[in-house]
Every structure is written in C-alpha cells, then in structure tokens.
Fold this sequence. Notes:
The chain is of the alpha/beta class. Helix content is about 50%, strand content about 10%.
Amino acid sequence: MICTPRGDHYAHHTTMLILEQLKAYSWDAKALIVQAAFALEFGKFLYLPQIPQYPVENSLAELNGLLLIQQNTQHLIYFSSVVKKVMQVIECITEWKRLTSAGYDIKDVPALSDTLHEIPVVVYWAIFTFVTCTGQIDDFTTDYKGHRHELSKNFENKLDIILRSFKEQLEECSKQIGAIEDYTRRRNIFIHTGKDIVKVLKALIVSGDNRDSRQIVYNGLTGEQVRVEEFKKKHVLLFISGLENIEDETQLLKSIYDKLKEKPKEVEGYRKEDFKILWIPIEEDWNDKQKKTLEAHLQRTKIGWYVVKDFNFQTGIKLIREVFNYKNKPVIPLISPEGKVENIDTKQIISVWGIDGFPFRTSDHTRLTQQWNWFWSEMIKLNPKIGDLIEEDCYLFIFGGTDSKWTQEFTTAVETLKRQTETVMQLDMTIEPYPLGKDDPKVVPRFWIAIDSLLASRKQMKGGEGVQDFATGEIKRLLFLKQDPKGWVILSKGSNVKLLGQGEAMYHTVKDFDIWHAKLHQEVSFDVAFKEYYERIKAKDVPKKCEHSEIANYPSDILARIPCPNMDCGRAMENVA
C-alpha cells in the first residue's frame, strides 16, 4: 500500500488488487487484514514523532523521517480525523459480523438483508481509505520539495455518509434482534410456566417501555386503573377479540360473571370468587373512533371484568396469536394462578354448559361430554330412532313414569311448548318430546334392568366403599326418580344432557313458559333459562323426601355405603334386609 502512487485512481486500483488477493476471506476479515497492515505504519507514525526522551528514540524517529511531521500540523489534524472515522467504520464492520453470526434467519431479521447488500461497499471504502492514508504517511515522512498530494476535503464527508447509513442499518438489525429476544423470553414464560399468573400477564400485555401496568389495565365497572398484581393467585379468563361482532361472547361472559357470584361458592375445590375476566381488545389502529367504540361498549355492557385499553404492544399481540391461536375471531382461554393455560378456549364449554362447566378446564368439557355415555348407550340400543334426533342437535325431553295421566299431560305440555317456540316466538331451535317406550313399550322394563345391571357392575368394578364418580351418582339419581309416581324427565341438547329432574316440577316449568320466556330475549339459552325456573319451582313446590332404592340379587360384598340419591339429603342409606 505504501508504494501506491498518489491519487484516487491509483488508490482504487490498489484496493481492487487487495480485494482480489483476499477474495477467499470473509468481508470482515478483508477489512481487518488491511487494518492490521495499516497499523504497522500508523503505529510508528503515532508514537515516535513525540519529543524523544532518549537518544535511541530520537534516532528511530529520524531514521523513519518522522521528525518532519510537525512541519505540516494543519493537514495532520485533518488526516487524524479521517483515520478516526475509518476506525469507526471498522467497528461497525465488526458489529455487523457479530450480528450476522448470531444465527438469526433473514426472514426474522429482514434488516440483515440490507446490510448484506451494503457490506461490500463499506469494506471497499474502508480499504480505499487505508490505502490512501498509508500514502499520506509516506508524504508526511518524506522531505519532498515539490507538490504534495493532500487528502480531499470531501473524503471525510464521503466516509460520514457511508458510516451514517451503515449505522442506521445496524441499529435496525439490533432493534429487530432485540424484539426477537424479547419475544423468545416472554414465550418461554408461557412454555415453561411462569409459576405466577402475574408474570404471565406481564409477559403478555406489558411492554418493556411501560413499567407501570396501571397505565393500561382498567376495572370495567368503575373505570379505575389497576395493577396486574390484582390477578395474583386468581384464575383468569382472557377474552381476546376485536371490537366488532362480539355481542354473543359478551352476553356469554356476562352470564358467567353473574353466575360466579351465586351459590355454591366452591366446586371441586375451586372458589368462584377466584375467577376473574380480563378483556384484551385487539385493533390494528387505536384511533379516536376505536377508542370511543370501546368506551361505548364498556358503558353498555356494565360487566365487572377488567379491560386492557389501547392495546398495541406488537410483541404481545404476536404472542397471543401464537399461544392462543388467535385469528381475529374471539377466544376465551383460561390461565391458572400458576400461569398454566388450562384451556386454550373455554368458549365451547361455556356456550354448551354455562356455569355447569365450571371451572372450565379442558378436562371438564371431556367429563361433561362423556358423563352421560352410559345413558345414550342403553337408549340407542333399545330405541334406535332416537339417534336421528340426537344428530339433529335439538332439545329433547326424554321422560317416563308410572302415572299414565301425568305422562300424557307432560307430552301435551311439551307439544304446546314446541308450537310456541316455533310459531309464536319464532326461535331458532327445535324441541321434541320422547317418552320412554314411545316406539315399543316392551323396551321400558329392559331399559331399567340394563340400568340396574350397570349400577351393580360399576360398583363391583370400582371396588366398593367410598367410590363415587359423577356417572354413578347420576345412575342412582335416575333410579331414585324412577320411583316417583309423577315420573322423571331428562332435558338434553343433542347428546349433551342439561338437566335430570323430577317430573312434576319439570311439568310446571314447561307449562309456565309464558312466565320465564322473557329470559330468552336476554341472550340466555333455552336450557339455562329452563333450569333456573325449574330450580325455583322445585325448591318451592317439591317436598324434600327420601325414597327407597331396590337393590336385589347383588353379591353382598359389593353393597357398599350408598348416599341418598336425593341431592338435598345425601345421608347414608340404611340397609334393610
């Protein structure tokens, strides 16, 4: 480089020769090798010109011609500025190498693609500058009386432009990589379970710039700002949606919110008061119109949930889309106090079962769906035609009893109810009555023999005392209600049994449809409204009494302790020989 004639044309020629010679090396290595070569000359130039303190230093400076440098102090200052600038370029090249070696895909860090196009230009100008500056060192150290070739005043400006552009690209790369690392950290909190619902929610909705979560989380009723710590040790139903077409989900959650305040306060060890609802509305742009829409919705619904306002944290939105499979359609995942996703979307279990699905885990949906399999297995086996009604997903009233008058009255009442819903109220649903033995009266005794045998086999299989699962309990309740002269009724929606009830109370509930049908205009499903009125009728009109259960021809070793099937009693039944 030191032998290169002065002038940009010659510097370019030497630069191209160097790049050709170093073509097997990476771009950063090319720049660093040339920097090392320049450092050999620049080191002597930098340190020896100082006033020598010892004779040997003076001799070395004189030998290298460095005592002549002080004759051109003004140009030396400009030369030093250019050298500092090219060193900054080398630092950027080194940083570029670090970023490109971090293993990130260009698809995830698109700014890296821009630097790949820019790096050849940056390295070229770094080497070009080193070649030119090496020549300048030779000029400084030669006692040359003629014209000296000094650095162009535009040289530093050119480096400034290249350096500024490349720095901006590197900053964008760092920003994109930082976003990836932040996303990965937050995602790991979900995958490995944050052990704390507060950590999980913060990972989801609180950006790094927003240290105070009170700026975004509000109480839907009072409008007060709250901290994320409000959800500590709570189960959280996240309502993730946009602002449009969410009326059904809103009514669904309002119904659940109201039911969570009712008795029983605890189910299967889960306290209803520990369940909170947090709404995270997601919009592309939170302009004034969207903000007004949100406020209007909160005023209209008056639900005691919490809401994240003006949520535009892109990392959190990306996390929501991945973890909860959110695709711009409302989802309602459930997160435990330990930060574990218990149910990726509770909307189905809440829609089908309402508060009966509490505590809304995935296992609860499985349990509720399968807990009546024993009943449908026997029903379809003895009454094949009922399978068609189940497939239609209509509301089925399956009933029976020893009082033929009651059976006829109940059939008539259901037929009237069916006409009212279809013609008068024009509700989008179908109701069908199905008395047991409708197609063949001979199946009635066979059905009860099968149910008796099923109970015995379950007791024998379960091992006797103290074993009580839901299905066994419902079998006992059905056998208990069978003894009531006024009969028994099962209300189902398709194969999902909604209610097993006492015949007389069920009859009055059907007859009193005119009294409670207004509930259906409040976005409450038919079965939920029916069950609410039935419970009131039963509590008021049906006497609380215990009946006997006939358990004949069973081995004595499986006659375990049996609680009374009457849910209002529950005491142990006496064994009468």
